[in-house]
Amino acid sequence: MTLAMNRDELAAYIDEVFPQVRGAFRIDALTEDGITMRLVVNDTHLRPGGTVSGPSMFGLADVCVYAMVLSRIGRQALAVTTNCSIDFMRKPAAGADLIATGQLLKLGRVLAIGDVHLRSEGSPDLVARATLTYSIPPAR
Question: Any idea where the Thioesterase domain is (predicted)?
């Protein structure tokens, strides 16, 4: 799939339309085959016991698919999540960023489906796997 925005353009656009999460997520790599993103983990992402919370992991998976969709369709901030299934497999490492690798399984005119694998930085083991569906706004 051809990219409508490169990594820097996409990061700048996400910062523009979602300034409230600026600095929380970083795009490490973006290619026509997929994306690698990270959640820059800090105390706000932790739950009792010092592990990354489920909502924080969901947030990374969601932003990952959103970024992949926008990288293909361009500046359409109103693409929205319509479905998410996430499997939490193991406790993320304490004190490590979460790394998401994602790929689009389908990009249609109305819906996009993406798959995301989450790992603690430095570990090959999956901590979660998610599949998300996004609704693409109609062309104007």
Answer: 49-123
Q: What is the pTM of this model?
A: 0.94
Q: Which residue has the tokens 């990270």?
A: 38
The CATH T-level fold of domain 7-135 is Thiol Ester Dehydrase; Chain A (3.10.129)
- Rounded to whole angstroms, how far apart are CA atoms 57 and 134? 18
Element (H, E) at 14: helix 7-17
Token pair listed for 110: 């109305």
How many CB atoms lie under 10 A from the CB of residue 98?
A: 25
> Per-residue pLDDT tens for 55-65?
999 999 999 99
Check residue 57 and report its DSSP letter: H
DSSP state at residue 10: H
- Find where tokens 């004190």 sit: 95
Please give the Cα distance from 138 to 76 (Å, whole number). Answer: 10
What CA–CA distance (Å, rounded) separates 125 from 79? 31
Q: Which helix (H) or strand (E) holds 49?
A: none
